[in-house]
Design brief:
about 220 residues; alpha/beta; Rossmann fold; Arc Repressor Mutant, subunit A; 8 helices; elongated; binds calcium ion
Amino acid sequence: MDLGRFAIRILLVEDDDDIAGRLATGLRPAGFVVDRAKNGEDGYAMGAHDQFDAAILDLGLPQMQGLTVLRKWRADKRDMPVLILTAHGTWTEKVEGLNAGADDYITKPFHIPEVVARLRALMRRKSGAASPVLTHKDINLDTVAGKATVGGKEVELTASELRMLTYFMHRPGRVISQSELMEHLYALEASAESNTIEVYISRLRRKLGRNVITTVRGLGYRMD
Ligand code: CA
């Protein structure tokens, strides 16, 4: 799904018309396009089925509470950055929200420039991950569905191969050392050995094409 290069799409789930209006008006000049849901159920459905770069989620919502919306998104593997709106002085809400998968929070009443700055910071942190489909030459990788295709044909990859491919796809043209890759894969595979990386590289080459990943002698590997 192409989000377009300049429009940053934000899902706003907020039942209060004044707050929603203020956010939509305030965020527009900063380059954000705001889609609003007025209740938790609609908000959940929009966030589950559409692509957004980030979401602003009020916690006190009709039909479905904000925390429930957030937990359901995360259970659905929706990984967009989520900024929760909490009432002043309710630190427990912030803790619950962060534990439920929120990336940051903002306390009401808020100032628009602070919301803009926090959204930008969240998107920088998640850069590249906001759109679930990565493309490099004829390789397409849907990081949400965990599916890769080469020239439109689906390729079967194991979880670790997918993880390694994702790592390369986020860093095209950059030399990545063996130790960097080891660190990245090690969390998954406690039994990682020094030749593990070479094994994965050769498997990826076999499945995706010989020239997909180049060996840079003495330095590591690069996706060209
Ligand atoms: Ca509310």
